[in-house]
Amino acid sequence: MEKFSYVNATSLEQVTSLLSESGWGEVMLIAGGTDLLAELKEYIETPKTLVNLKTLPGMDGIEADASGLKIGALATVADIAMHPTIQHHYTVLSQAAGSVATPQIRNVGTLGGNLCQRPRCWYYRDETTNCLKKGGDICYAVDGLSKYHAILGGDPVYIVHPSDLAPALIALGASVEIVGPEGVKNMSLEEFFTLPAANPFRENVLEPNEIVVEVSVPAPKPNTKSFYLKAQEKGAPDFALSSVAGVFEMDGKTCKTASIVLGGVAPAPWRSKEAEAAVTGKMIDESVSQQAGADAVKDAQPLNDNAYKVTLTQNLVSRAAMMAAS
Amino acid sequence: MPDKEKKQGTNISRRNFLKGVGTGTVAATVAPSVLIGSEKAADAQAGDAVANATIQLNINGKSYQIEVEARTTLLTVLRDGIDTSGSNIDLTGAKLICDRGECGGCTVMVDGKSVYACMMLAIDAQGKQITTVEGLADGDDLHPVQEAFVQHDALMCGFCTPGFIVSSAALLNENSKPTVEEIKVGLSGNTCRCGTYPFIFDAVKTASRKS
Fold first, then answer.
1. Beta partners for residue B110, in sequence order
2. Nearest to residue B171, comparing CAs of B130, B103, B129, B112?
3. Most Cβ neighbours (<10 Å): which of A112, A168, B169, B208?
4. Chain B residues with at least one Cβ partner in A under 8 Å
């Protein structure tokens, strides 16, 4: 790690004002630090100043009432996974949180950090590789080793978004509160994430002087079933090869509404409107669920090494649909 | 550093010999925390940016004051840090292995929860209760997890063992009667290259019966 100075945050105004002093990378935010410190150790980022957000009061709460959830950006992934209301009524979110990394990381990693974490692409994470994401000319995954890369929405940067919480929260219809120098704004979490075609360097719409402070989740409708299915290379904790966050409002075996969001397959959490359309209003059986799986990946364009993700994703979507009907 | 070298000269145990071999690397890590004595070490006050700070850490119930660079990890302080009184902290139970929060060799408890000491800044550990593997036993009385590891021979080379023991103790803090499945999840942040997992799981099961 390069040297940096360290500031304990005293208020959001102070944080956004410190961030406003420069563009990306000079002043960075630290909460759990599990992603950031790895980047510093690899010299992917060399900030002059780190602002410690953990001293900001009241930003680590999880409030649950009849209208929904409010989760502060500093809530840990472990707190989200273990929260009784989330376990009972927002199953997809609790399952996604429980699948994040390891106990040691869940104990310190935060919601805000999980949403804003940087990609795991081995070219991006390599100090010596100046890839397109880091301002170079080439996304090396295109002709290089692409086993863990995007099959959807990649062009021109084929990273996948590593968050497990994001697909689950988007499937639940979450919105995110962002604070910047001009004040507070809210947007749907789906719109928060961007594809490389819009901006190859970032994974979301945050400006350099903005910060995520809270995520709100509306209460699921009655008779909602939700799941997070995650395929990993090994039994031990890992990032998703492919994952499916499914939220299904059911009437018996008939699906009234569905939200199906894919993780690990695209540079942003990937809402599959095609798979949703395949099940909405239908009585879910084997053939409907197969169709949903096929429709989810019909636009997939695998690279040299990741065609397996197409089949994997297709099967996960089908399985999620069958689980909704069972 | 002089302290450490003197110790190595008088007592050539395997541990100290290995430490001696690694002196080059150790010196590189320790140097900053020694050097900053010559600069003005500032305390981390809210709102002030500091490159160096004198921090207070509570480790295994004992209070230490240490001058650190902001970038110093908790693991570096535990293993190589020097108290402002001049004594080495020397808690080498937590191991520096992957240094990327993947292997679990550096696992310690912070406020009773397992964390990777390599992925936490020392400055972020202020005001918290830090427990390393050295802090689990009560004098000569081993922690139930330690006893069970001995009983089940739950190690081969032993390098990962401190991390596994701390993770196991943290797991039993949260869930005193875990199922085998819960033990596997609870220890999923630790890796054993020798593959002693079945013995480790048995040991945790045994320890849970005692707790």
1. B113, B130
2. B112
3. A168
4. 44-51, 53, 69-71, 73, 99-101, 104, 107, 110, 113-116, 119-121, 123-124, 167, 170-171, 185-186, 188-191
Give dist(CA B62, CA B90) in Å, integer. 13
Tell whether A310 is covered by a domain: yes
Residue A40 falls inside a structural domain = no
CATH of the domain at A313: 3.30.390.50
Query: CATH number, domain at B157?
Result: 1.10.150.120
Flag whether residue A290 sits within 8 Å of chain B, measured between CB atoms: no
Comparing CA positions, the residue from A177, A279, A220 lying closest to residue A68 is A220
Q: What is the pLDDT of residue B46?
A: 58
d(CA A149, CA A145) in angstroms, rounded, equals 9
Number of domains, chain B = 2
With CA atoms as reference, the chain B residue closest to A32 would be B120
Q: In angstroms, what CA-CA distances link B153 with B50, B121, B149?
A: 47, 34, 6
Within this chain, do residues B118 and B172 fall inside the same structural domain, yes or no? Answer: no
Residue B72 lies in a domain: yes
Instruction: Work out whether strand A62-65 and strand A49-52 pair parallel, antiparallel, or are unpaired.
Output: unpaired
Q: Give residue B85's pLDDT.
A: 94
B42 contacts in chain A (CB < 8 Å):
none
Q: Which domain holds residue B51?
A: 3-132
B38-82 pLDDT per residue, tens:
333 444 455 688 999 999 999 999 999 999 999 999 999 999 999
Could A49 and B49 be called an inter-chain contact, meaning their C-beta atoms sit closer than 8 Å?
A: yes
Q: What angle do CA B61, B63, B66 make, to 5 degrees?
A: 140
B122 plus B158 within the same structural domain: no
Query: What φ, ψ does residue A242 adopt, rounded to 5°?
Result: -160, 145
Read off the tokens for A215: 């995520």
Is residue B40 domain-shared with residue B8, that is, in the same domain? Answer: yes
Q: For A225-243, what is each residue's pLDDT tens digit?
A: 999 999 999 888 999 999 9
Q: Are B71 and A4 in contact (CB under 8 A)?
A: yes
* pLDDT category of residue A315 using cuts at 50, 70 and 90: very high
Give B128-169 pLDDT, tens digit per residue. Answer: 999 999 999 999 999 999 999 999 999 999 999 999 999 999
Residue A235 has a pLDDT of 80
Element (H, E) at B12: none
| B-chain residue closest to A14, CA distance | B47
